[in-house]
Design brief:
Elements (H helix, E strand, L loop, with lengths): L6 H18 L5 H16 L2 H39 L1 H10 L5 H19 L1 H18 L4 H19 L5 H10 L3 H33 L24 H4 L10 H25 L4 H23 L3 H20 L2 H9 L4 H6 L11 H12 L4 H15 L9 H15 L3 H19 L6 H7 L3 H26 L1
Helix pairs in contact: 1-2, 2-3, 2-14, 3-6, 3-12, 3-13, 3-14, 4-6, 4-11, 5-6, 5-7, 6-7, 6-20, 7-9, 7-19, 7-20, 7-21, 8-9, 8-18, 8-19, 9-19, 9-21, 11-12, 12-13, 16-18, 17-18, 17-19, 17-21, 18-19, 19-21
Length: 479
């Protein structure tokens, strides 16, 4: 091997290990990431002032890289709050409610609707958009409230969020860390996500039916009055925050029906345009985000009339508040892992790396290939484990940059399969931390269904573990 690993490589590897340990212990990793950035900045620049300046500049670099993702999610949340306030969300979902006539139809119907809406609106806003309408229907036909929560959870925070094929926030984070294109990661994730989705949802439904038949089912209902329909953590869409007026005086029932039909049509047109013009990544995100922003502007004027100018701003502020609360912990973590690829030479110059270096992660991967016999099985199991560990903080997004970085390392060592490993790590991280296993990440779906998030996590555990095992096995064969 021509390149000898230097102190900057070992320092980076040391802080990666520290971050993994802290995630496993369910501790916040922000200080560890900032310390890692400062230490690497000191080695790269050779001065204390360079390290301190590099710390700030790395955060700016991270924000610039994540800005489109934060912006699109913020605008989508702003739009969803406006739809909840006007009642248009109920009209949009009501036709689907008429098709639900049995517990099985309720479980799969709620799941598929939640997944479809989540692809465009993100899962937490989607819970608020559809839960209030479909939950009473599901309970009326005999589906337990916990079963409805499972369906919302697995299809929304599991399938839709881990694929994220429309908004593309998750694949952008992992693709950037792995040095790949967003489209490449999304393409590699399709077979893996199909396996994960099939195994997990079928297992969850089978376990539910078995336990109901055996009389061992516990619905996990919370005490009356202990939770509200849109209660939960800061990551929920709180309808009351936008609903400061008693009604939407500018919208008649007929107008609401027209708008409820136009909004899905506009997004359907966006999908057609993306396919016809082959828009992906930032271009696709811009199209969706621009459409959502126009909907917020026009609908605010229609709903609030003379106060529409001011109310549109308040909806956007609510959306940005949500976006930065969700991505606040992600920014320093992503800043650290960007140093493993493009950020280091950008911030500190090419001289920060040894001659012949292709980036810290690429160098470590090449060294691994020359020193350790790495197999596809070892790489796949490692990525699933790392992804699951990074999800333990309950975010799902905060650690996927680490998954992408390690996928790049193993892919370099193997000589191929970086895209498959990146997609595998992304799926594992988001299924564990995005809202299907960690109790504090389950609160949106649990609150709207009035069930215990801990009971929901317990119910999801076996199906999700089975899905991860099956998906890892499939990934081994794809490498």
């Amino acid at each position: 091997m021509d390149l000898t690993l230097g102190s900057i490589h070992w320092l980076y590897l040391f802080f990666v290990a520290v971050i993994i340990v802290m995630l496993a212990l369910r501790r916040d990793t922000t200080i560890a990431c900032l310390a890692g950035i400062g230490a690497i900045g000191f080695v790269a620049s050779g001065t204390l002032s360079g390290a301190v300046s590099g710390l700030f500049n790395s955060l700016i670099f991270s924000i610039k890289e994540l800005s489109s993702t934060i912006l699109i999610i913020s605008i989508i949340v702003a739009m969803s709050r406006l739809l909840v306030f006007t009642g248009i969300n109920e009209i949009m979902i009501r036709p689907f409610a008429r098709l639900i006539r049995s517990p099985a139809m309720a479980f799969w119907g709620i799941g598929l609707i939640m997944m479809t809406v989540s692809f465009f609106f993100w899962p937490s806003p989607a819970v608020a958009l559809i839960g209030a309408v479909l939950l009473p229907v599901a309970i009326r036909v005999g589906l337990p409230a916990l079963g409805a929560a499972m369906a919302m959870n697995l299809f929304g925070h599991g399938i839709a969020l881990s694929g994220d094929y429309v908004i593309q926030g998750a694949p952008k984070l992992t693709a950037d860390a792995a040095g790949l294109g967003v489209a490449q990661v999304m393409e590699a994730s399709v077979p893996l996500l199909l396996v994960m989705a099939t195994v997990t949802t079928v297992a969850a439904y089978w376990f539910m039916k078995r336990d109901i038949a055996n009389g061992t089912w516990r619905d996990g209902l919370v005490q009356p009055g202990s939770g509200s329909l849109f209660g939960g953590t800061d990551t929920t869409v709180d309808a009351s925050s936008a609903n400061t007026e008693p009604s939407a005086p500018g919208l008649s029932l007929g107008m609401k029906k027209i708008v409820a039909a136009l909004i899905p049509l506009l997004f359907a047109v966006d999908v057609v345009v993306m396919l016809s013009l082959k828009l992906q990544g930032g271009d696709a995100t811009a199209l969706i985000g621009g459409t959502a922003a126009l909907i917020v502007a026009v609908l605010s004027l229609l709903a609030h009339r003379s106060r529409g100018l001011e109310r549109s701003t308040s909806y956007l502020v609510d959306g940005f508040t949500f976006g930065f609360k969700v991505f606040g912990p992600v920014i320093p973590i992503a800043a650290f892992f960007y140093l493993g690829d493009s950020a280091l030479p950008t911030l500190f110059g090419e001289a920060a790396l040894p001659a012949g270096s292709h980036g810290i992660v690429n160098d470590l991967g090449a060294a691994l290939a020359h020193s350790v016999p790495v197999s596809g099985a070892v790489a796949a199991v490692t990525l699933t484990t790392v992804g699951a560990i990074t999800g333990l903080d309950g975010s799902g997004f905060s650690g996927i940059s680490l998954a992408g970085s390690i996928a790049n390392l193993f892919g370099t060592a193997l000589g191929n399969g970086t895209d498959v490993l990146t997609a595998l790590g992304q799926i594992a991280a988001i299924w564990v931390g995005g809202g299907t296993l960690i109790p504090w990440a389950l609160i949106p779906a649990a609150a709207i269904c009035g069930v215990s998030p801990f009971e929901l996590a317990r119910r999801n555990l076996k199906p999700v573990v089975l899905g991860l095992v099956a998906t890892t096995v499939v990934a081994i064969f794809l490498l």
